[in-house]
Amino acid sequence: MEIQQRSLIQKRIGIMKTVAWFMILWLVLAYARVQLWKGREMQKLALAQAVKTRTTPAPRGLIFDRNANKLVDNRRALHLVIQFEDLPKDNRQLEPLAVALQMDPDQLKRRAVAIRQAAGNRMLVLQDNLDDSAVARAEVLRARFPFLSIEVAPRRVYLGEDLAGHALGYVGEVTPEELARDPGHYQLGEIIGRTGFEAARNDKLKGVDGQRRILVDYLGREVATYGEQEAKPGRSVYLTLDAGLQQTMKEAFGTTQGAGVVLDLRDGGILALYSSPSYDPNVFLNRLTQEQVGKYWDNPDRPMLNRVTQGRYPPGSTFKLLVAIAALEKGIITPATTFTCYGHKNFYGRDFRCDAVHGTLNLVQAIAQSCDIYFYELGARLDIDDIYNTAKKYGLTELTGIDLPHEAVSRVPSREWKQRVKKEKWYAGETISVAIGQGANSLTPIALARFYAMIATHGKLLTPHLLYGVRQENSNDIDLFTPPPPTDTGLSSAIWSTLDEGLYQVVHSGTAKASALPGVTIAGKTGTSQVTSFVDKAHYATLAKKLRDNALFAGYAPRENPQIAFAVVAENAGFGASSAAPIARKLNQYWFIDRLHKPLPPPGAKLPDAFRPEPELAGEDEPQR
Amino acid sequence: MRERLRFLDTRLLLPMILLVIMGTLTVYSAGRGTTQSSLWLKQTLWNALGFLALAAVAAVNPLRSFRSALPLYILGLLSLAAVLVAGHRIGGAQRWLVVGHLTWQPSELMKWLTLLFVTHRLGTRPLQEVSGWDLMGASTLVFFPMLLVLKQPDLGMAISFLPILLLIPLLKGLKAKWVIAGLLGIGLLGFVSWQKVLKPYQKQRVMTFLDPGADLQGKGYQINQSRIAIGSGGMFGQGFTSGSQTQLNFLPVKTTDFVFSVWAEERGFLGVLLALGLFGSVIMRILDTARVAKTSSETYFCVGAAGIIALHLLVNVGMVIGLLPNKGIVLPFFSAGGSSTLSYFLGLGVVMSVRYRAKMK
Questions:
Q1: Residue B174 confidence (pLDDT)
Q2: How far apart are CA A379 and CA A374, in angstroms?
Q3: Chain A residues touching residue B170 (CB < 8 angstroms)
Q4: N or C: which end of chain A has fewer CB within 10 A?
Q5: Interface test with A, best of B223, B228, B316 (most A CBs within 10 A)
């Protein structure tokens, strides 16, 4: 190679070396920028994706009956979720997922948007309560959709199934409407009581969710835990319910539709509350199938209605006690005043009938025999507003204050009510019907029970309630719930003793004689109320079953020293003495006799709890000595 | 002993050994807890094999290497053709020949064989007699294997053939009209390949490069995670086997394409400086060898070798930090892989033999 060419090549190689150094310098500067300039920022990003805060859902408080029988338990359940931080930024990524899960893509996207916009890091629950095969399927899905994860969360178990469905209610995820109505009170995705006691005392039962700082890998799998703030479980709650009495009531109703409630006269605690047909709250923890929606929500028998607090029934003859009080207080009659029943009588040009020809009766006899004529006479002498004001005085026009949501208010008509609702004036003839509990009268069973509890307690208006006490956080002691003190209505003892005698005679010698219980003096009043006046004979034929009379029985026991008050309504069951009173008799039978000898096993005893197996009954298998 | 091994150029060998050790440690750290946990051992074996091959090639007269350039080139072309016919297919690309447990990527070695053959052809002629036609012919010799590689498809590998063309400015200098013609050619090639040649995933990579933030969960995800890994290394690094991006698998393909991100995360900016400095000294030593080479062929070969290593360095190290598009291209001495390791050692063996012959006078 010639020298000249060689030096040219040498020069060009020299240039190449310079270029190479510049190239390396360029890389050095680029790395300096990212590692030194932006190092902090990148470290934050690295931490943000590797260190996650996960919410540990707090288990809700357990629910026991007054004898510490467990009614509601929690168990661990697995859910397929997308954690808040893992929600795909692009909603389109959710589409194949929705297809894989057979969900509606648009609905899934809407839920994702709602979660993203909400405060707090709530997860999006795609499938809850996975069983073994669903867990296996979910694991497969996670390979395709790494943003999925499987979360352990507590789940409610209603041990008694449909034993006390209406009293307990059930839980569910908070709805967007509830979030909007009460901002700041709930978190998105929170499990809250939807109805029943679960809803009424949601604040007591719900705990405080915990937080966990964990290290995750690129698939979101937990690698290590940094720190944990444990979830604070909700407080366990004792109800005033007696599971045995509740079970007795359930069995007594059987397939009969209706409602029954038993109050503890000491404080208004509810010993049993049953609405028939009942429902199993466990069903409502999952998304309902179309069939279940039809069975529960679109059923003309309305199983979701809590008939005790929301069912309004014409009280029939059980209302006569209030009319008697009104007449006695107005001085229209004395307990000794008699009227004569010929089986029917004309008032205001219309013929009103009685069930029988009772002859001449005083007030006690009229109550015992449930003579309509006697009370028609009172109705003819009373103004509707007198009846209304008496009902108001004795608590029949207000809410009872029971700790269940959406209680319906009872209705006793008045002039003002008719003007307001029907835009008509009151006709005196209507008062005749009201006097025997028909017409525009309608009472909830809980209000009726409270009225008879008022008589039993010589005029005290109790507040019916389900909450018995709350278990202390660190011990098994119970903080007892103090119900509001009873209101004294000032029922005079003279009037009281007449009513008491009348109610005693109903069961002793009157309409409910057949339901007398040896050993326990029941005081109560039967009632039979027409469901509705029928339009014509053809209409009656088609709706015959629906339109049969409702049977009622309300009262208290034992008469000498009242401990419980009760109200029972059996729908479309005919005469009160023949269908409602026997149910009440069974309740008394259990409460005063059977309970002390052979209490029923706790609810759900047949339902095994997989996570807390029952200890083996010691000694059962031991050889006999 | 020392006398016996005089053909080994210590000033080239030392930075190489350091880089290989650093690389194997990084592969160890990256493979921890994954299915590739024993990859570093395999890589160590390849490295040992590579050193033996290097020593063997360095000991022979480079002229003998050049003499077998043509049959080797033809053999290389045949192997590339074999890949297209009977190659092993992984993820939509057919780049590998599989014999028993051994997986071989012929394109890695083909780069060096092409370089050897082209420099051999150009070097046999006096410089002033090298015409434009000769250069065209040389370019064709480069483009032919490139096309076969593109067919696999392996764009990153095809691009790594291009440094061989550095010989043209070496011989003819950089003239404005050449630069303009080159730029126009690249522009035209880019347009045509965008329309006809590029696969959708390749287009996606280009789009991702132009706007990495647009698709964080998709293709841009890799670059984004790599940048986070590099950045969180800071000045001193997270420490060996302690990089969260690496150990928690946020970093993709971390034993091959993104191995340098692992190094940067765990060793920090200082580690990056050390690695780039060693790479720089390797390139400089090769170019110095080009200067002292006895024949033109030897000079050209060394310049081409420096070009190949520099290009891999630039594209890989630039790619993992997002300076350049996300190309599947390995980093010499760092990335795990038998074919590439062996090929680099063989190529550098030739460089050493050139220096040894030059020293002998």
A1: 64
A2: 9
A3: 9, 12-13, 16
A4: C
A5: B228
